[in-house]
Amino acid sequence: MKATFRKPTEDPIWLKALLGALAVGFIAILLLLPLVLVFKEALAHGLSAFWAAMVEPDSLAAVRLSLTAAAIAVPLNTLFGISAAWSIAKFDFPGKTFLVTLIDLPFSVSPVVSGLIYVLVFGAQGWFGPRLADYNIHILFALPGIVLATIFVTFPFVARELIPLMMDQGRDEEEAAATLGASGFSTFLRVTLPNIKWGLLYGVLLCNARALGEFGAVSVVSGHIRGVTNTMPLHVELLYNNYDYVGAFAVAALLAMLGLVTLALKSLLEWRYADELAAMHRH
Amino acid sequence: MSLTVDSVSKKFGRFPALNGASFVAPQGGFVSLLGPSGSGKTTLLRILGGLEFADSGSVRFADLNWLDMPARTRNAGFVFQQYALFKHMTVADNIAFGLRVRPRRTRPSKAAITDRVKQLLDLVQLPGLEARYPSQLSGGQRQRVAVARALAIEPRMLLLDEPFGALDAKVRKELRSDLRRIHDHTGVTTVFVTHDQEEAFAVADLVAVMKDGRIEQYGAPADVRRNPKTAFVSEFLTA
User: Fold this and answer.
1) Please, which residues bridge with residue B32 across strands?
2) Which residues of chain A neighbour B97 with C-beta distances below 8 Å?
3) Res. A94: pLDDT tops 50
4) Among A266-275, B46-55, B193-202, B221-230, which stretch is predicted with the lowest mean pLDDT?
5) Fewer CB near the terminus (10 Å): N or C of chain A?
6) How far is A27 from chain B (nearest CA, A)?
7) pLDDT band at B222 (very low <50, low <70, confident <90, very high)
8) Do the bridges between strand B206-211 and strand B214-219 make them parallel or antiparallel, or are there none, so unpaired?
9) Contacts by A139-143 with C-beta closer than 8 Å and gap 24+?
10) Do A180 and B98 touch (CB under 8 A)?
Protein backbone atom coordinates (compact mmCIF):
# COMPACT_ATOMS: atom_id res chain seq x y z
CA MET A 1 0.00 0.00 0.00
CA LYS A 2 1.33 3.39 -0.91
CA ALA A 3 1.20 5.92 1.88
CA THR A 4 0.50 9.51 0.94
CA PHE A 5 2.29 12.07 2.98
CA ARG A 6 1.27 15.62 3.50
CA LYS A 7 2.33 18.37 5.84
CA PRO A 8 0.47 18.41 9.15
CA THR A 9 -0.80 21.90 8.39
CA GLU A 10 -1.99 21.02 4.89
CA ASP A 11 -5.71 20.42 4.33
CA PRO A 12 -7.25 17.87 1.96
CA ILE A 13 -7.63 18.97 -1.64
CA TRP A 14 -11.46 19.05 -1.63
CA LEU A 15 -11.46 21.40 1.39
CA LYS A 16 -8.96 23.73 -0.25
CA ALA A 17 -11.04 23.76 -3.45
CA LEU A 18 -14.27 24.43 -1.53
CA LEU A 19 -12.83 27.27 0.54
CA GLY A 20 -11.14 28.76 -2.51
CA ALA A 21 -14.33 28.63 -4.56
CA LEU A 22 -16.31 30.19 -1.72
CA ALA A 23 -13.87 33.07 -1.36
CA VAL A 24 -13.64 33.74 -5.09
CA GLY A 25 -17.41 33.42 -5.56
CA PHE A 26 -18.12 35.73 -2.65
CA ILE A 27 -15.73 38.39 -3.93
CA ALA A 28 -17.01 38.06 -7.50
CA ILE A 29 -20.69 38.39 -6.62
CA LEU A 30 -20.56 40.90 -3.81
CA LEU A 31 -17.59 43.08 -4.76
CA LEU A 32 -16.60 42.71 -8.40
CA LEU A 33 -20.02 42.35 -10.04
CA PRO A 34 -21.49 45.61 -8.64
CA LEU A 35 -18.35 47.47 -9.65
CA VAL A 36 -18.55 46.13 -13.19
CA LEU A 37 -22.27 46.97 -13.37
CA VAL A 38 -21.59 50.57 -12.35
CA PHE A 39 -19.28 50.99 -15.33
CA LYS A 40 -21.66 49.08 -17.61
CA GLU A 41 -24.61 51.32 -16.70
CA ALA A 42 -22.48 54.44 -17.06
CA LEU A 43 -21.58 53.40 -20.59
CA ALA A 44 -25.09 52.15 -21.47
CA HIS A 45 -25.65 54.98 -23.96
CA GLY A 46 -22.13 55.02 -25.29
CA LEU A 47 -18.93 56.82 -24.46
CA SER A 48 -20.09 60.26 -25.62
CA ALA A 49 -23.14 60.23 -23.31
CA PHE A 50 -20.86 59.15 -20.49
CA TRP A 51 -18.44 61.96 -21.24
CA ALA A 52 -21.23 64.54 -21.54
CA ALA A 53 -22.55 63.52 -18.11
CA MET A 54 -19.08 63.84 -16.63
CA VAL A 55 -18.32 67.34 -17.92
CA GLU A 56 -21.78 68.66 -17.11
CA PRO A 57 -21.13 71.80 -14.94
CA ASP A 58 -23.00 70.52 -11.85
CA SER A 59 -21.09 67.24 -11.97
CA LEU A 60 -17.79 69.07 -12.27
CA ALA A 61 -18.78 71.29 -9.34
CA ALA A 62 -19.56 68.18 -7.29
CA VAL A 63 -16.17 66.67 -8.16
CA ARG A 64 -14.43 69.91 -7.24
CA LEU A 65 -16.31 70.18 -3.94
CA SER A 66 -15.57 66.57 -2.95
CA LEU A 67 -11.88 66.93 -3.75
CA THR A 68 -11.68 70.25 -1.86
CA ALA A 69 -13.37 68.79 1.23
CA ALA A 70 -11.04 65.76 1.16
CA ALA A 71 -7.99 67.99 0.57
CA ILE A 72 -8.80 69.87 3.79
CA ALA A 73 -10.12 67.00 5.91
CA VAL A 74 -7.46 64.37 5.16
CA PRO A 75 -4.34 66.40 6.10
CA LEU A 76 -6.03 67.67 9.27
CA ASN A 77 -7.09 64.16 10.28
CA THR A 78 -3.59 62.89 9.51
CA LEU A 79 -2.21 65.47 11.92
CA PHE A 80 -4.88 64.76 14.57
CA GLY A 81 -4.49 61.02 14.13
CA ILE A 82 -0.72 61.07 14.54
CA SER A 83 -0.92 63.29 17.63
CA ALA A 84 -3.63 61.13 19.20
CA ALA A 85 -1.83 57.86 18.47
CA TRP A 86 1.51 59.28 19.61
CA SER A 87 0.16 60.46 22.95
CA ILE A 88 -1.84 57.28 23.56
CA ALA A 89 0.89 54.83 22.59
CA LYS A 90 3.95 56.54 24.02
CA PHE A 91 2.73 58.25 27.20
CA ASP A 92 0.74 57.37 30.29
CA PHE A 93 -1.77 59.91 31.54
CA PRO A 94 -5.10 59.89 33.37
CA GLY A 95 -8.12 59.66 31.08
CA LYS A 96 -6.28 57.67 28.40
CA THR A 97 -8.99 55.00 28.13
CA PHE A 98 -11.59 57.72 27.79
CA LEU A 99 -9.64 59.31 24.95
CA VAL A 100 -9.44 55.96 23.13
CA THR A 101 -13.21 55.57 23.48
CA LEU A 102 -13.73 59.11 22.23
CA ILE A 103 -11.69 58.40 19.11
CA ASP A 104 -14.04 55.52 18.29
CA LEU A 105 -17.12 57.69 18.68
CA PRO A 106 -17.49 58.61 14.99
CA PHE A 107 -17.45 54.88 14.13
CA SER A 108 -20.13 53.99 16.64
CA VAL A 109 -22.46 56.94 16.04
CA SER A 110 -24.52 56.96 12.85
CA PRO A 111 -23.18 59.58 10.40
CA VAL A 112 -26.65 61.10 10.17
CA VAL A 113 -26.57 61.75 13.90
CA SER A 114 -23.16 63.40 13.67
CA GLY A 115 -24.49 65.59 10.87
CA LEU A 116 -27.45 66.58 13.03
CA ILE A 117 -25.09 67.54 15.86
CA TYR A 118 -23.59 70.18 13.57
CA VAL A 119 -27.06 71.44 12.71
CA LEU A 120 -27.79 71.79 16.43
CA VAL A 121 -24.52 73.64 17.02
CA PHE A 122 -24.25 75.84 13.94
CA GLY A 123 -27.83 75.90 12.59
CA ALA A 124 -30.03 79.01 12.46
CA GLN A 125 -31.66 77.92 15.73
CA GLY A 126 -28.44 76.37 17.07
CA TRP A 127 -25.99 77.49 19.77
CA PHE A 128 -23.55 79.46 17.65
CA GLY A 129 -25.57 79.81 14.44
CA PRO A 130 -27.19 83.25 15.06
CA ARG A 131 -23.99 84.80 16.45
CA LEU A 132 -21.94 83.54 13.49
CA ALA A 133 -24.62 84.75 11.09
CA ASP A 134 -24.18 88.26 12.58
CA TYR A 135 -20.58 88.14 11.37
CA ASN A 136 -21.73 86.73 8.04
CA ILE A 137 -20.00 83.40 8.69
CA HIS A 138 -21.89 80.46 7.25
CA ILE A 139 -21.06 76.97 8.42
CA LEU A 140 -24.13 75.00 7.45
CA PHE A 141 -25.11 74.58 3.80
CA ALA A 142 -21.59 75.70 2.85
CA LEU A 143 -18.07 74.31 2.52
CA PRO A 144 -17.12 74.68 6.23
CA GLY A 145 -20.03 72.47 7.33
CA ILE A 146 -19.20 69.83 4.74
CA VAL A 147 -15.55 69.86 5.80
CA LEU A 148 -16.46 69.64 9.51
CA ALA A 149 -18.82 66.71 8.92
CA THR A 150 -16.17 64.96 6.81
CA ILE A 151 -13.50 65.49 9.47
CA PHE A 152 -15.80 64.11 12.16
CA VAL A 153 -16.71 60.99 10.25
CA THR A 154 -13.19 60.19 9.02
CA PHE A 155 -11.33 61.06 12.22
CA PRO A 156 -10.74 57.49 13.50
CA PHE A 157 -9.07 56.08 10.38
CA VAL A 158 -5.51 57.34 10.89
CA ALA A 159 -5.56 57.08 14.70
CA ARG A 160 -7.08 53.58 14.66
CA GLU A 161 -4.45 52.40 12.20
CA LEU A 162 -1.56 53.85 14.19
CA ILE A 163 -2.46 53.13 17.83
CA PRO A 164 -1.97 49.32 17.77
CA LEU A 165 1.10 49.70 15.58
CA MET A 166 2.75 52.23 17.89
CA MET A 167 1.75 50.27 21.01
CA ASP A 168 3.32 47.17 19.49
CA GLN A 169 6.56 48.98 18.72
CA GLY A 170 6.86 50.17 22.29
CA ARG A 171 9.09 52.99 23.45
CA ASP A 172 12.51 51.33 23.22
CA GLU A 173 13.66 53.03 20.04
CA GLU A 174 12.47 56.44 21.25
CA GLU A 175 14.25 55.90 24.55
CA ALA A 176 17.42 54.90 22.73
CA ALA A 177 17.18 58.06 20.62
CA ALA A 178 16.76 60.20 23.75
CA THR A 179 19.86 58.71 25.40
CA LEU A 180 21.77 59.40 22.18
CA GLY A 181 20.93 63.08 22.51
CA ALA A 182 18.05 63.46 20.05
CA SER A 183 15.36 66.06 20.77
CA GLY A 184 11.70 65.05 20.85
CA PHE A 185 11.03 66.45 17.40
CA SER A 186 14.14 64.90 15.89
CA THR A 187 13.20 61.54 17.44
CA PHE A 188 9.73 61.77 15.94
CA LEU A 189 11.06 62.65 12.51
CA ARG A 190 13.95 60.17 12.37
CA VAL A 191 12.67 57.23 14.44
CA THR A 192 8.91 57.24 15.03
CA LEU A 193 7.72 58.41 11.62
CA PRO A 194 9.81 55.96 9.54
CA ASN A 195 8.55 53.13 11.75
CA ILE A 196 4.88 53.98 11.23
CA LYS A 197 4.96 55.24 7.65
CA TRP A 198 3.26 52.18 6.14
CA GLY A 199 0.47 52.16 8.69
CA LEU A 200 0.16 55.90 8.27
CA LEU A 201 -0.08 55.61 4.49
CA TYR A 202 -2.77 52.97 4.80
CA GLY A 203 -4.71 55.07 7.30
CA VAL A 204 -4.47 58.15 5.09
CA LEU A 205 -5.66 56.22 2.02
CA LEU A 206 -8.64 54.79 3.91
CA CYS A 207 -9.40 58.22 5.34
CA ASN A 208 -9.25 59.73 1.88
CA ALA A 209 -11.49 57.07 0.38
CA ARG A 210 -14.09 57.62 3.08
CA ALA A 211 -13.79 61.42 2.88
CA LEU A 212 -14.63 61.29 -0.84
CA GLY A 213 -17.41 58.76 -0.33
CA GLU A 214 -19.08 60.09 2.84
CA PHE A 215 -22.82 60.42 2.36
CA GLY A 216 -24.84 60.50 5.60
CA ALA A 217 -23.27 63.26 7.66
CA VAL A 218 -22.56 65.46 4.67
CA SER A 219 -26.10 64.97 3.40
CA VAL A 220 -27.50 66.52 6.59
CA VAL A 221 -25.29 69.63 6.58
CA SER A 222 -24.96 70.22 2.84
CA GLY A 223 -28.41 71.51 1.92
CA HIS A 224 -28.14 69.77 -1.48
CA ILE A 225 -27.73 72.97 -3.48
CA ARG A 226 -27.06 71.69 -6.95
CA GLY A 227 -23.71 72.84 -8.31
CA VAL A 228 -22.83 74.57 -5.02
CA THR A 229 -22.99 72.25 -1.99
CA ASN A 230 -23.55 68.87 -3.62
CA THR A 231 -20.62 66.50 -3.17
CA MET A 232 -20.11 63.57 -5.54
CA PRO A 233 -22.10 61.00 -3.52
CA LEU A 234 -24.95 63.48 -3.02
CA HIS A 235 -24.89 64.33 -6.70
CA VAL A 236 -25.14 60.64 -7.60
CA GLU A 237 -28.28 60.36 -5.46
CA LEU A 238 -29.76 63.51 -6.94
CA LEU A 239 -29.21 62.38 -10.53
CA TYR A 240 -30.51 58.91 -9.73
CA ASN A 241 -33.68 60.29 -8.16
CA ASN A 242 -34.19 62.40 -11.29
CA TYR A 243 -34.06 59.23 -13.42
CA ASP A 244 -30.81 60.38 -15.03
CA TYR A 245 -29.23 56.92 -14.84
CA VAL A 246 -26.35 57.58 -17.20
CA GLY A 247 -25.43 60.70 -15.25
CA ALA A 248 -25.76 58.96 -11.88
CA PHE A 249 -23.66 56.00 -12.94
CA ALA A 250 -21.09 58.18 -14.70
CA VAL A 251 -20.40 60.12 -11.49
CA ALA A 252 -20.57 56.86 -9.52
CA ALA A 253 -18.02 55.34 -11.91
CA LEU A 254 -15.73 58.31 -11.37
CA LEU A 255 -16.09 57.92 -7.60
CA ALA A 256 -15.32 54.20 -7.90
CA MET A 257 -12.35 55.02 -10.11
CA LEU A 258 -10.91 57.37 -7.48
CA GLY A 259 -11.16 54.49 -5.03
CA LEU A 260 -9.44 52.12 -7.45
CA VAL A 261 -6.67 54.65 -8.06
CA THR A 262 -6.15 54.81 -4.29
CA LEU A 263 -5.84 51.02 -4.12
CA ALA A 264 -3.52 50.92 -7.13
CA LEU A 265 -1.34 53.60 -5.55
CA LYS A 266 -1.04 51.57 -2.38
CA SER A 267 -0.14 48.38 -4.28
CA LEU A 268 2.40 50.27 -6.34
CA LEU A 269 4.12 51.63 -3.23
CA GLU A 270 4.09 48.21 -1.59
CA TRP A 271 5.66 46.68 -4.69
CA ARG A 272 8.25 49.45 -4.99
CA TYR A 273 9.33 49.16 -1.35
CA ALA A 274 8.91 45.40 -0.95
CA ASP A 275 12.50 44.95 0.31
CA GLU A 276 12.16 47.58 2.97
CA LEU A 277 8.79 46.18 4.09
CA ALA A 278 10.29 42.71 4.42
CA ALA A 279 13.19 44.10 6.45
CA MET A 280 10.79 45.85 8.81
CA HIS A 281 8.72 42.74 9.45
CA ARG A 282 11.60 40.39 10.16
CA HIS A 283 12.70 41.15 13.67
CA MET B 1 35.09 62.76 40.17
CA SER B 2 33.05 59.72 41.02
CA LEU B 3 29.54 58.35 40.73
CA THR B 4 27.65 58.81 44.01
CA VAL B 5 24.18 57.31 44.24
CA ASP B 6 22.55 58.47 47.47
CA SER B 7 19.35 56.85 48.86
CA VAL B 8 17.43 56.82 45.59
CA SER B 9 13.78 55.75 45.94
CA LYS B 10 11.07 55.17 43.38
CA LYS B 11 7.51 53.88 43.54
CA PHE B 12 5.40 52.63 40.65
CA GLY B 13 1.90 53.32 41.93
CA ARG B 14 1.99 51.67 45.35
CA PHE B 15 4.76 49.25 44.48
CA PRO B 16 8.13 50.43 45.83
CA ALA B 17 10.70 49.58 43.15
CA LEU B 18 13.60 51.30 44.89
CA ASN B 19 13.92 51.81 48.64
CA GLY B 20 16.88 54.06 49.23
CA ALA B 21 19.61 52.54 47.08
CA SER B 22 23.11 53.98 47.64
CA PHE B 23 26.57 53.21 46.30
CA VAL B 24 29.73 55.02 45.28
CA ALA B 25 31.81 54.05 42.26
CA PRO B 26 35.08 55.60 41.09
CA GLN B 27 35.31 57.40 37.73
CA GLY B 28 36.03 54.76 35.10
CA GLY B 29 34.76 51.96 37.34
CA PHE B 30 32.77 48.93 36.21
CA VAL B 31 29.81 48.21 38.49
CA SER B 32 27.44 45.27 38.22
CA LEU B 33 23.94 45.55 39.67
CA LEU B 34 23.08 41.96 40.51
CA GLY B 35 19.80 40.63 41.85
CA PRO B 36 16.67 38.60 41.18
CA SER B 37 13.86 40.04 39.08
CA GLY B 38 11.91 42.68 40.95
CA SER B 39 14.93 43.74 43.00
CA GLY B 40 14.97 47.21 41.40
CA LYS B 41 18.21 46.91 39.46
CA THR B 42 16.72 47.88 36.09
CA THR B 43 14.80 50.77 37.68
CA LEU B 44 18.03 52.09 39.19
CA LEU B 45 19.79 51.82 35.83
CA ARG B 46 16.94 53.59 34.02
CA ILE B 47 17.08 56.37 36.60
CA LEU B 48 20.80 56.73 35.90
CA GLY B 49 20.01 56.90 32.18
CA GLY B 50 17.25 59.51 32.64
CA LEU B 51 14.53 57.18 31.34
CA GLU B 52 12.83 57.02 34.74
CA PHE B 53 12.59 59.64 37.47
CA ALA B 54 13.46 59.09 41.13
CA ASP B 55 10.92 60.11 43.79
CA SER B 56 13.71 61.04 46.19
CA GLY B 57 17.46 60.74 46.63
CA SER B 58 20.29 62.19 44.59
CA VAL B 59 22.97 61.16 42.14
CA ARG B 60 26.19 63.10 41.65
CA PHE B 61 28.50 62.27 38.80
CA ALA B 62 31.60 64.17 37.72
CA ASP B 63 30.39 67.13 39.85
CA LEU B 64 27.06 67.22 38.03
CA ASN B 65 23.63 67.09 39.64
CA TRP B 66 22.87 64.06 37.50
CA LEU B 67 19.13 63.68 38.22
CA ASP B 68 18.38 67.31 37.29
CA MET B 69 19.57 66.73 33.73
CA PRO B 70 17.27 65.38 30.99
CA ALA B 71 18.27 62.10 29.35
CA ARG B 72 19.46 63.73 26.17
CA THR B 73 21.97 66.04 27.82
CA ARG B 74 23.41 63.38 30.16
CA ASN B 75 25.43 61.83 27.37
CA ALA B 76 24.99 58.39 28.90
CA GLY B 77 25.09 55.53 26.40
CA PHE B 78 22.32 53.03 27.07
CA VAL B 79 22.24 49.42 25.85
CA PHE B 80 18.84 47.68 26.01
CA GLN B 81 18.08 44.02 26.53
CA GLN B 82 16.09 43.87 23.28
CA TYR B 83 18.74 45.88 21.41
CA ALA B 84 16.33 48.73 20.46
CA LEU B 85 18.21 49.26 17.21
CA PHE B 86 16.51 51.50 14.66
CA LYS B 87 15.02 48.84 12.39
CA HIS B 88 14.76 51.05 9.32
CA MET B 89 18.40 52.20 9.42
CA THR B 90 21.56 50.43 8.34
CA VAL B 91 24.18 49.49 10.89
CA ALA B 92 26.23 52.55 9.91
CA ASP B 93 23.21 54.88 10.27
CA ASN B 94 22.37 53.36 13.64
CA ILE B 95 25.87 53.98 14.97
CA ALA B 96 26.04 57.47 13.46
CA PHE B 97 22.62 58.49 14.88
CA GLY B 98 23.92 60.13 18.05
CA LEU B 99 26.42 62.19 16.04
CA ARG B 100 23.98 63.24 13.31
CA VAL B 101 21.35 64.59 15.73
CA ARG B 102 23.84 66.99 17.29
CA PRO B 103 23.39 70.70 16.64
CA ARG B 104 25.38 71.84 13.63
CA ARG B 105 28.25 73.49 15.51
CA THR B 106 29.16 70.31 17.43
CA ARG B 107 28.30 67.86 14.66
CA PRO B 108 31.31 66.11 13.11
CA SER B 109 31.79 66.26 9.34
CA LYS B 110 30.44 63.47 7.14
CA ALA B 111 33.92 62.06 6.61
CA ALA B 112 34.63 62.13 10.34
CA ILE B 113 31.37 60.29 11.05
CA THR B 114 32.19 57.62 8.47
CA ASP B 115 35.63 57.16 10.06
CA ARG B 116 34.18 56.98 13.53
CA VAL B 117 31.63 54.33 12.45
CA LYS B 118 34.43 52.28 10.96
CA GLN B 119 36.56 52.53 14.11
CA LEU B 120 33.63 51.51 16.29
CA LEU B 121 32.76 48.53 14.10
CA ASP B 122 36.39 47.42 14.41
CA LEU B 123 36.20 47.90 18.18
CA VAL B 124 33.11 45.67 18.48
CA GLN B 125 34.63 43.26 15.94
CA LEU B 126 32.07 43.63 13.18
CA PRO B 127 34.22 45.21 10.45
CA GLY B 128 32.55 45.75 7.09
CA LEU B 129 28.92 45.38 8.20
CA GLU B 130 28.06 49.07 7.65
CA ALA B 131 25.40 48.47 5.00
CA ARG B 132 23.48 45.69 6.75
CA TYR B 133 20.08 46.17 8.37
CA PRO B 134 19.50 44.98 11.95
CA SER B 135 17.13 42.26 10.68
CA GLN B 136 20.05 40.73 8.77
CA LEU B 137 22.17 40.28 11.92
CA SER B 138 22.26 37.63 14.63
CA GLY B 139 21.33 38.53 18.19
CA GLY B 140 24.94 38.78 19.28
CA GLN B 141 25.82 40.99 16.31
CA ARG B 142 22.86 43.25 17.02
CA GLN B 143 23.99 43.79 20.58
CA ARG B 144 27.51 44.57 19.38
CA VAL B 145 26.03 47.22 17.08
CA ALA B 146 24.01 48.58 20.03
CA VAL B 147 27.20 48.87 22.08
CA ALA B 148 28.96 50.64 19.20
CA ARG B 149 25.99 53.03 18.86
CA ALA B 150 26.12 53.84 22.58
CA LEU B 151 29.90 54.42 22.41
CA ALA B 152 29.66 56.65 19.33
CA ILE B 153 28.55 59.64 21.40
CA GLU B 154 31.71 59.32 23.54
CA PRO B 155 29.50 58.80 26.57
CA ARG B 156 30.30 59.98 30.08
CA MET B 157 28.74 56.75 31.32
CA LEU B 158 27.80 53.44 29.73
CA LEU B 159 24.63 51.76 31.03
CA LEU B 160 23.73 48.20 30.05
CA ASP B 161 20.38 46.60 30.94
CA GLU B 162 20.75 42.80 30.86
CA PRO B 163 22.40 43.23 27.48
CA PHE B 164 23.15 39.54 26.98
CA GLY B 165 19.92 38.19 28.47
CA ALA B 166 18.45 37.15 25.12
CA LEU B 167 21.59 35.38 23.87
CA ASP B 168 22.86 31.83 24.22
CA ALA B 169 25.59 30.86 26.68
CA LYS B 170 28.51 30.80 24.25
CA VAL B 171 27.75 34.19 22.73
CA ARG B 172 27.20 35.62 26.22
CA LYS B 173 30.71 34.63 27.27
CA GLU B 174 32.31 36.10 24.15
CA LEU B 175 30.42 39.36 24.49
CA ARG B 176 31.18 39.56 28.18
CA SER B 177 34.93 39.44 27.69
CA ASP B 178 34.66 41.82 24.74
CA LEU B 179 32.71 44.26 26.88
CA ARG B 180 35.45 44.13 29.51
CA ARG B 181 38.07 44.73 26.82
CA ILE B 182 36.09 47.68 25.44
CA HIS B 183 35.72 49.11 28.92
CA ASP B 184 39.45 48.88 29.57
CA HIS B 185 40.12 50.46 26.17
CA THR B 186 37.70 53.41 26.57
CA GLY B 187 37.82 53.85 30.34
CA VAL B 188 34.17 54.87 30.45
CA THR B 189 32.32 54.47 33.77
CA THR B 190 30.09 51.45 33.25
CA VAL B 191 27.01 50.17 35.09
CA PHE B 192 25.84 46.72 34.08
CA VAL B 193 22.57 45.07 35.15
CA THR B 194 22.30 41.28 35.29
CA HIS B 195 20.59 38.51 37.22
CA ASP B 196 23.41 36.11 36.37
CA GLN B 197 25.94 36.13 39.21
CA GLU B 198 28.65 34.39 37.20
CA GLU B 199 28.41 37.17 34.62
CA ALA B 200 28.44 39.89 37.28
CA PHE B 201 31.49 38.52 39.05
CA ALA B 202 33.38 37.81 35.84
CA VAL B 203 33.04 41.24 34.30
CA ALA B 204 32.87 43.90 37.03
CA ASP B 205 35.26 45.60 39.46
CA LEU B 206 32.44 46.17 41.91
CA VAL B 207 29.26 44.19 42.49
CA ALA B 208 26.09 45.52 44.13
CA VAL B 209 23.77 42.71 45.19
CA MET B 210 20.19 44.03 45.25
CA LYS B 211 17.03 42.87 46.99
CA ASP B 212 13.65 44.59 47.37
CA GLY B 213 14.90 47.93 46.07
CA ARG B 214 17.92 48.08 48.37
CA ILE B 215 21.57 47.24 47.98
CA GLU B 216 22.24 44.32 50.31
CA GLN B 217 25.95 44.20 49.82
CA TYR B 218 28.44 46.18 47.75
CA GLY B 219 32.11 45.46 47.15
CA ALA B 220 34.75 43.80 45.01
CA PRO B 221 33.62 40.43 43.60
CA ALA B 222 36.13 38.45 45.68
CA ASP B 223 35.06 40.14 48.94
CA VAL B 224 31.38 39.67 48.31
CA ARG B 225 31.92 36.03 47.48
CA ARG B 226 34.16 35.41 50.50
CA ASN B 227 32.10 37.31 53.08
CA PRO B 228 28.42 37.42 52.22
CA LYS B 229 26.97 39.86 54.77
CA THR B 230 23.38 38.67 54.81
CA ALA B 231 21.60 35.37 54.54
CA PHE B 232 20.02 36.57 51.28
CA VAL B 233 23.40 37.26 49.65
CA SER B 234 24.90 33.93 50.66
CA GLU B 235 21.77 32.12 49.49
CA PHE B 236 21.65 34.02 46.21
CA LEU B 237 25.32 33.29 45.54
CA THR B 238 25.04 29.57 46.21
CA ALA B 239 21.83 29.18 44.21
Assistant:
1) B192, B207
2) 177, 180, 182, 190
3) yes
4) A266-275
5) N
6) 36
7) very high
8) antiparallel
9) A140/A221, A140/A223, A141/A221, A141/A222, A141/A223, A141/A225, A141/A229, A142/A229, A143/A65, A143/A68, A143/A69, A143/A229
10) yes
Which residues are B174's β-sheet partners? none
CA distances to A39, A104, A274, B13, B114 from A51, rounded to whole Å, are: 12, 40, 38, 67, 59
| Per-residue model confidence as pLDDT tens digits over B138-172 | 999 999 999 999 999 999 999 999 999 889 999 99
* Maximum Cα–Cα distance across chain B: 56
Q: Do B88 and A283 touch (CB under 8 A)?
A: no
For residue A181, the chain B residues in CB contact (below 8 A) are 72-73, 75, 98, 101-102, 153
User: Measured between CA atoms, how close is A186 to chain B, in angstroms?
Assistant: 7
Three-state secondary structure of A187-255? HHHHHHHHHHHHHHHHHHHHHHHHHHHCCHHHHHHHCCCCCCCCCHHHHHHHHHHCCCHHHHHHHHHHH
For chain B, how far is it from start to end, CA to CA, in angstroms?
36
At residue B9, does pLDDT exceed 60? yes
